[in-house]
Structure formats: structure tokens, C-alpha cells
Amino acid sequence: MAAQNPKSKAQRGAEASRTPRGKASIALPDLDRVIHERMRLAIVSALAANEVLSFNELKELLATTDGNLSVHARKLEEAGYVACRKGFAGRVPRTEYRLTPEGRRAFQRYLDHLEALVRASGRAVRVR
Amino acid sequence: MHTPGPGPRISPEALGDRAADNLRFIRDTMERASSFTAVPGWGGVGMGASALVAAAVSALARTPSEWLGIWLVEAFLAVAIGVRAMSVKAARAGVPLFAGPARRFLLTLSPPLIAGAVLTAALERSGRYDLLPGVWLLLYGTAIVTGGAFAPRVVPIMGIGFLLLGTIALASPPYWGTAFLAAGFGALQIAFGIVIARRYGG
Questions:
Q1: Is A30 strand, coil or helix?
Q2: Whole-angstrom Cα distance, residue B138 to residue B114?
Q3: Radius of gyration (Cα) for chain A, nearest Å?
Q4: pTM, rounded to two decimals
């Protein structure tokens, strides 16, 4: 699989900046950088809404490539936020992802942090 | 891309706007992820199978009202299978059925189905049984297209299939009606149900 080939730093950088809707990441102070990147934020948000999602489901949902999804899913796994299980659905290999309790706590902290920033700016929190 | 750290140039208002934008992004992603799994694939297969049985039985009906009675029983059965399958799928995904995207799917699905029930009563009263298959297929197609607007693309595509079949049915000889119902509520429903079940979690 292409995603398992070693990649240059430039390639990894290009993939990291690719987002589900083509928007660039924004810089906010003291936020959890693992979650803050848009693609990783999208993965964590999707897994917060669904207990389990397969690699292909995530890929379709987030409209991304195999390589981009693998890179970011692996970063989340390394941080202990996401658990990955490889198995089979019939004879077809199926990779499933779910949020770990630590990942759920990190997501909640991240949400709290964003809400605090919105409140500090004097804006009303009306997005949830 | 390396993102610069916080600097004194960023005002609290700008930070707040960016944080609000991120919160919206999270909410949108979570909603799409939920509606992603709300549409039941295996439920569709079950509904399709029951429609094929109804088509076979109704082909033997001796009177138009007997034919209509069989399809009304099938309609209730299909709704029961669909709602049951949605609630099982939502429970497995850990999302509530009557909140968020699943609720929106059910609410947008309902108006064309209610319109279908009213039109069925009106057409039955005026004896226009020949129009029923086309009207049912058209309105079910409308319900799937509108209900599936936020679901994976395969769902509204299925709805368009029903709209096409309904249009052709209305332009075809009346005695093909049951065959069109079998093709739409049976075959089309089963085919798309399998695709949805295999690709979108059951």
C-alpha cells in the first residue's frame, strides 16, 4: 500500500496540510496540536459521532485519499487517541477505528478550550 | 506547513472567530458522520424482499381493492422494517434515532409519504387504481431524494431511480403497474440496500 512507503518530509508536509474541504489549518495558542490539525480533527469528530468507523468509511466521509488518511490516523494512534483494529469482513480486509477513552477526553478538552476562546472574545457560543 | 505560534497581533475577537469556525467544523463533521450511518442498508434489503412477495401475491388479486389492500399491508410492513432497521443501526453506532441527522432524515422523509397516503385515498375514491403505482414510486423517490440530501450520494441516487421508474410507470399501460412496483420497491430497493449495507456500516 502506498501509505506504507517511506515518504519525504515535503510529501508528508503536503499531505498534512490537505484538509477535507481544502481549508488550511488555523493557529490557536496552547491547543492540543495532535487534534487541532483539520484532517485529524475531522477523524476525531467523526469517531465521536460513531463508535466505530472503517478505513473506507472514514475515507469516503472525509473525502480524502488513502495516504492522507493513513498518515493522520497513525498520528492519532501514536498519541493514544485512536485505536485501530484490523480484521476481515467476509474475505475482505477491514480496518476499524474507534476513539480511546483518552482520545474522548482529549476531544472534550479541545472543545472546552475552543468554547473558552469564543467566550473570551465576547462572542456568543451558538455553534453547538 | 508550519503554522506560526501565537503572536501579539492576534486579537481575542479574531481568536474567538477562529475557535467558533473550528466548532462549526466539528459540528458539521459529526452531523455528516451520523447521517452517514442513519440510512439502513439491510433494512432496505428486507423492505425490498417483502415488496417482491407483495408483488407476487397482488398479481393474483381478483379485484382492484384486493390488490390495493395487499399493497397497503406491504406499506405498513415496509415502514415497520425500515424504522426497526434504522433504530438498530443508530443504536449500534451509538447515536440517538430521534435527534440530530437521523431525526432530520425521518422528518424530511415523511411529508412526501403523507402526501402519498392522501393521494392514494383520493385516487381510490375516484377509481383510478391505474395511477397508483406511478404515484407511489414518484413520491417515494421524492422522499428518498429529500431525506437523503445529507446522506451519502448513493441514497439520493436511489431516489432518482424511483423518480424515473415512477415517471415511466405513469406513461405505460396500466397492467404493467405491479411489475413497476416489483422493479422499484423490490429490485431497486434490494440493489441499493446491498450497496449501502456493504459500504456504510449495515
A1: coil
A2: 13
A3: 16
A4: 0.60
